[in-house]
């Protein structure tokens, strides 16, 4: 949770603390100080307006309304908190257990959560309040049940990032039971965002509970809470508005206090992340997300407006990278590789629309951050090595200025400190300090690419996106660049997303390979399987098209017959169907899902190719 010192520096935190403290004091002292006046009827003071003796007036039995509003603080808060605690406990356990259940039970649980989310929470609470019976118990149980689906979905999403971690797999090997896996390895890693959600949900529950009491489904006489007092005062609102406004203002005050508490805690938790990862003198590498995932992307889709209509060059792409992992992304031009990378880095052209179910970088959900927080997080946690360093580097600025700009902007480093770090970054990529005084046009293509890598290292990123970094470089320099990236991965534990047309280079350099075609991932497999274990016809055709220097000169170079589909008129079936030699009727009717074949191998094909042992080795020329 956020540190008290961090909270104390915020004016909003002070205001929130005072508001919460006042609520606690009223809840504790209210019944003791004003309980007698709130319950004592006075037939001679029935339905009086505001006066010095009764600042908020009296009710139909002559009881002081201000005393009743202050005394109702305790039941209103306790009942709302009880419903939140019950709903959060049940929802979190339901959602988090998906990380430790078996495949079938996990699917059933996920289906149950999806089914529960289909019902609007408020309508569900009203329906259950009628089913359980009007009263305090029924209202609390109804609100708790209505809160379960939301907490379950949040816990399920967070637990998915923990489910595939090495420490959870090691605990499974040790034979720990599922409840111990849940309590020791899953819940501690997702506790903070869940606690932040509980604080904001408390304000919502307070309003909902008062709404049920207002409708006669909540607290019943002789008990009372703010909702019931509001209902009683509404009958005389035109003659005496204060008896109705007083409980309404109390409800607004308490709900606002809980909402502000959630804002303060969330803001402090988001603001402390970069400070904790980057010490003042020498920054450390950005850490991975909770659960050991640097990047998690689920169901990424990119839409681009064109004169002929809207196209979707990226459709439903999912990928993840662990610390120190090198993942290759291959495919023909126009397959969506670079757009996928640009969408992750938030660098898409103006007008492009991005949708995704999950996009987490170094533990942060980018969709939950403000624009300023997202820009800072991307600038310090991710670096992009572009295909053409000559255009990526500013020709009017010296290399030293461009290298030091990031650390001076995002970390407030002095010029001398930033220059020292730039010299260290250049030495790491094999360039002398004199390069700092050069301009891009004075360097060779290989040197400019090394400068781009050095610029990315200045912020110690957790993820490096290398978008065809070896294009237009000779074979010797290609080897130097890939060797340099390998050394950086080893020294910093940064994950690398390596985008290339060269499937042979990817096969030698990467650990896993994702093959894209027409904006979708059609095959994902370990790089060691590229030579003789590819199952998708498109991937097999790419491997076969790699030039073989031992082949006869009179033999034509293998190619992938046909052309990619028209993005303005996508077919309903498999996008590779028009070019596939194994196509059948089903291929033209329905797009195949990305099925898991085991051992980290997935393929999107209705009729995968059989495994062959005579495929030629994939080697870079």
TrEMBL record:
It is a multi-pass membrane protein; Peripheral membrane protein. Keywords: ATP-binding, Cell inner membrane, Cell membrane, Membrane, Nucleotide-binding, Translocase, Transmembrane, Transmembrane helix, Transport. Residues 295-543 form the ABC transporter domain. Pfam families: ABC_tran, BPD_transp_1, oligo_HPY. It is found in: Cell membrane; Membrane. Residues 553-573 are annotated as: Disordered. Signal peptide: none annotated. The keyword Membrane applies. Residues 564-573 have a biased composition (Pro residues). InterPro entries: AAA+_ATPase (IPR003593), ABC_Ni/Peptide_Import (IPR050388), ABC_transporter-like_ATP-bd (IPR003439), ABC_transporter-like_CS (IPR017871), MetI-like (IPR000515), MetI-like_sf (IPR035906), Oligopep_ABC_C (IPR013563), P-loop_NTPase (IPR027417). The chain crosses the membrane at residues 12-34, 77-101, 113-134, 154-174, 194-217. Residues 73-262 form the ABC transmembrane type-1 domain. Belongs to the binding-protein-dependent transport system permease family. Belongs to the ABC transporter superfamily. This is Dipeptide/oligopeptide/nickel ABC transporter permease/ATP-binding protein. It comes from Streptomyces castrisilvae. The lineage of its organism: Bacteria, Bacillati, Actinomycetota, Actinomycetes, Kitasatosporales.
């Amino acid at each position: 949770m956020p540190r008290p010192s961090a909270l104390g520096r915020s004016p909003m935190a002070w205001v929130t603390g005072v508001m919460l403290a006042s609520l606690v004091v009223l809840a504790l002292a209210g019944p003791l100080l004003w309980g007698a006046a709130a319950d004592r009827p006075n037939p001679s003071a029935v339905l009086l307006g505001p006066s010095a003796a009764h600042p908020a007036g009296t009710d139909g039995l002559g009881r002081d309304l201000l005393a009743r509003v202050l005394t109702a603080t305790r039941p209103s808060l306790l009942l709302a908190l009880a419903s939140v605690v019950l709903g959060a406990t049940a929802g979190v356990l339901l959602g988090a257990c998906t990380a430790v259940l078996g495949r079938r039970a996990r699917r059933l649980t996920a289906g149950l959560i999806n089914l529960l989310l289909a019902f609007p929470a408020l309508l569900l609470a009203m329906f259950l309040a009628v089913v359980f019976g009007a009263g305090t118990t029924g209202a609390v149980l109804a609100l708790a049940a209505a809160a379960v689906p939301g907490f379950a979905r949040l816990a399920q999403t967070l637990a998915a990032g923990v489910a595939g971690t090495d420490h959870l797999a090691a605990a499974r090997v040790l034979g720990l039971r599922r409840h111990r896996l849940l309590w020791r390895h899953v819940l501690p890693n997702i506790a903070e965002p869940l606690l932040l959600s509980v604080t904001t949900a408390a304000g919502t529950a307070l309003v909902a509970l008062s709404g049920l009491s207002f409708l006669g489904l909540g607290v019943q006489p002789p008990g009372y809470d703010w909702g019931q007092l509001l209902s009683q005062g509404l009958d005389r609102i035109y003659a005496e508005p204060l008896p109705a406004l007083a409980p309404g203002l109390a409800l607004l005050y308490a709900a606002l206090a809980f909402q502000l508490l959630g804002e303060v805690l969330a803001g402090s938790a988001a603001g402390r992340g970069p400070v904790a990862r980057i010490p003042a003198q020498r920054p450390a590498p950005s850490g991975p997300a909770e659960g050991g995932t640097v990047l998690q992307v689920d169901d990424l889709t990119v839409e681009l407006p064109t004169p002929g209509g809207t196209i979707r060059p990226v459709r439903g792409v999912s990928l993840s990278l662990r610390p120190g992992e090198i993942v290759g992304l291959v495919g023909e031009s126009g397959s969506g590789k670079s757009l996928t990378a640009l969408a992750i880095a938030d660098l898409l052209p103006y007008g492009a629309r991005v949708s995704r179910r999950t996009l987490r970088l170094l533990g942060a959900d980018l969709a939950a951050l403000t624009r300023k927080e997202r820009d800072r997080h991307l600038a310090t946690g991710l670096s992009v090595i572009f295909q053409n360093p000559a255009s990526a580097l500013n020709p009017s600025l010296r290399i030293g200025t461009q290298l030091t700009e990031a650390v001076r902007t995002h970390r407030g480093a002095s010029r001398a400190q930033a220059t020292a770090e730039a010299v260290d970054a250049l030495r790491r990529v094999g360039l002398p300090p004199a390069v700092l005084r050069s301009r891009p046009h004075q360097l060779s293509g290989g040197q400019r690419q090394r400068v781009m890598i050095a610029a990315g290292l200045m912020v110690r990123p957790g993820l490096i996106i290398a978008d065809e970094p070896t294009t237009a470089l000779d074979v010797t320099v290609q080897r130097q660049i890939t060797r340099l990236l390998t050394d950086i991965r080893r020294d910093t534990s940064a994950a690398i997303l390596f985008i290339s047309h060269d499937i042979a280079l990817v096969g030698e350099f990467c650990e896993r390979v994702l093959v894209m075609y027409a904006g979708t991932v059609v095959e994902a497999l370990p790089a060691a399987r590229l030579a003789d274990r590819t199952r998708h016809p498109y991937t097999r055709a790419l491997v076969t098209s790699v030039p073989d220097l031992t082949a006869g000169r009179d033999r034509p170079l293998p190619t992938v017959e046909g052309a990619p589909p028209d993005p303005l008129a996508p077919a309903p079936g498999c996008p590779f169907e028009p070019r596939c030699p194994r196509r059948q009727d089903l291929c033209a009717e329905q797009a195949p899902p990305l099925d898991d074949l085991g051992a980290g191998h997935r393929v999107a094909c209705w009729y995968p190719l059989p495994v062959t042992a005579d495929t030629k080795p994939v080697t870079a020329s």
